[in-house]
Amino acid sequence: MKSLHQHLSIFPLLSNALNELLLGYSLKDAYRNQPANELNLVFEKGQELLSMQINTSCKTALFFFYEYPLERTGSVFPLFKELVGKPILQVQSHAFNRSFQINFGSNQTLVFKLYGPLSNVLYYEGEKVVNLFRPAIENDWFLPVEGFNQAPSEMALPNFEGVFYVSESIDGFCLSFEKPDGKILLETEVIFEALHTFSKCFLQQYIFTTHRNKLLGIYKQKVKRDNALRHGAEQFLKYAETAIPYDEIGHILMANLHQINRGDIKVVLDDFYRNEPITIELKKDLSPQNNAANYYQKAKNRKKELGIKQKQQEACSIRLQENNAILEKIENAQFLKDLKPWLKEEKTANEIPLKEKFRKFECQGFQIYVGKNAKSNDELTLKFAHKEDLWLHAKGVSGSHVIIKHKPQQSFPEPVITRAAEIAAHYSSSAGSQLVPVIYTPKKFVRKPKGANPGQVSVEKEEIILVEPKIEIN
What is the pTM of this model? Predict the structure, then answer.
């Protein structure tokens, strides 16, 4: 059953009820809240006060009614000042349309246009739109007031038999004229009670669903990222397990120096560990002894890399276990209170000042900032960095984005660039290598391609520096 809360059959009933209720009242106050999704109208008649609220945060118009004045809280924007103190002459429905109007004196009118996500309240003086509840809906500035009355249609309208039902089913909440199959939350002859109850339930469910879907997206992304990192670490460890150890290659070279010439790019020697020939890649600019030394250094680097990948694999496994458990709890949540622990965690994370979200270093008076993960990299590069800052990243591998904050009318000293490059190399997947190429360029040459994953960017006009990965804790 489809809800009738914005069906054109509901508005003649609402306007008639409002016409009886508001007779003799005048407008005391009108304002919208700061997010511009809530309009509050307060009416008075002597000591009697009534309030009507229209909420559009759910991509539909929801009505709330109160027998007391709604107080202004926080930052609000006053509306329809010309109508304050003016008596209400009539509330009038529009023919075959999802709209109605409140008529004041001096040919002043408030038109309630209830068109789903385009719902609005328009203030007319004569035939001219003077103000809007939602001014961003630009077409509403040009709507003629007489255009709201529509010609009859052949569409069959639901018949109201004197009772409103608010119900809940697997499809959500519903306002209807006939007794529903789902759980009945309210059965009333008063349209204000029906709309208020439906709106309250609908808004609560919308807020819950919005927060739940946001949290699901956040934690699914965390699980996806850690699965990818763990898989990469497992593949590396699996390869390293079956690959010929670099130190053994060094031993084979040292045992066969007489068969190697400077300038050779490869050599085929006897692998006395496995009793079979082995082809070994060489650096042509190195002597046979230095080629062997190069493989011994690779063995040391490989040992470091293995340690890094093993720790990464373990850390990812722990995080995956934790985040999968959280995902299950979020998926099984039924109420907003069930989500509070993770909503609070995300809120706290968002309240941290942007520059406090990054690792920070200093060199010769220049501030160096380092991203901590893919999301942090995006925030550092796209939100925090100035176009004149210098941007660095280990070339061709995953790693942290690094920013050197610029100083007006000062160039970046070479030692500062080198220091930042060493940090970029350290916080990359090449951290175990002896030397790492690092690209650098002004941030204005760094772009985020459309559809790119978190942390992915494209770079123009890059320069390269070769550095040793290292970090010094300040």
Answer: 0.69
